[in-house]
Structures are given as structure tokens and as C-alpha cells.
TrEMBL record:
This is Lipocalin-like domain-containing protein.
Length: 151
């Protein structure tokens, strides 16, 4: 009986180790956001300027907004005013929070020196929420919040 109990405990321990080692590791943030995003809800400061599917929007150009992060390093940003910028992207992950950096953008968006940074508020494979870290000259210097979706 003692031998049976010992074998049973060993099987239980080995089984637990095998099961726990088979758990999926979480995807890196860069892999989660590495896709094409479109506008769901956009705020300039505290004012909602675009809601996908709304009958009217103060800034209807966001219908064509696209943030393409589908390449591991290349980014394309199509703004609400129709301007398109290309460059590179990277994610900086820190204990203080995560940041998306669009850099070496050409042409350079006004007042950016070719770099725009966003605080990543949340990210799943279908929804990406971020806040621009500096005011946008295009929107009167407001800090803009973007809720983006990927089909």
C-alpha cells in the first residue's frame, strides 16, 4: 500500500509539472498590435470627434484612418485629413507603461521631427487603445485618444 501511495504521488507530481510547462506563453505586445488598425472611437482632448457607424461625425475623415503595423518594423499612418506617412515602429515596454513609437516618418508630420509617440492603454488582437503623448498641431494641440479595431 505504501508503495502504491508513493507511485501515485510521483505520477501526480510529474503530471502537474508536465501540465504547467505546456501552458502557452503570452504573445509579445508587438505581435498583438502588429496588424492593420482602423478608427472605432477618436477623441481630440475630451471631445469625441469620430465614432464608427455614427450617422454624423464632427471629423468624418477618420473613416479612412489607418495605422498599418503589419510589418515587423515598417509603419504606415493614414491620417484623417488624407495625408499618409511611412516610417518605422517599435514598442518600448517598461514597468511604468508601454509606448508605441512611430519614427523616421516621411514626410514629417508637422511639429514632430518625424516621430510620434503613443501611450498604449490596452491592446488585444481586435482592439487597440492608445493616447498620443504630445499635442497634435493638426487638432489644435489636443492630446488625442484612439480606440482602434482590427477586423
Amino acid at each position: 500500500m505504501k508503495r502504491f501511495f508513493t507511485v501515485f504521488v510521483m505520477i501526480a507530481v510529474v503530471g502537474t509539472v508536465v501540465v504547467s510547462s505546456c501552458k502557452k506563453k503570452p504573445k509579445p505586445l508587438s505581435e498583438i498590435i502588429g496588424r492593420v488598425w482602423s478608427a472605432q472611437l477618436i477623441k481630440h482632448g475630451s471631445s469625441v470627434v469620430y465614432t464608427k457607424g455614427a450617422a454624423t461625425n464632427p471629423t468624418p475623415g477618420y473613416l479612412n484612418f489607418r495605422l498599418d503595423l503589419s510589418s515587423p518594423t515598417s509603419a504606415t499612418l493614414k491620417e484623417w485629413d488624407g495625408n499618409t506617412f511611412t516610417g518605422q515602429w517599435e514598442v518600448q515596454e517598461t514597468t511604468a507603461g508601454n509606448t508605441l513609437i512611430l519614427k523616421n516618418l516621411t514626410p514629417q508630420p508637422t511639429g514632430t521631427n518625424g516621430t510620434i509617440q503613443f501611450t498604449i492603454n490596452s491592446a488585444t488582437e481586435t482592439e487597440f487603445v492608445m493616447t498620443r503623448t504630445s499635442g497634435s498641431q493638426k487638432t489644435g494641440g489636443t492630446i488625442n485618444n484612439y480606440t482602434l479595431v482590427s477586423p
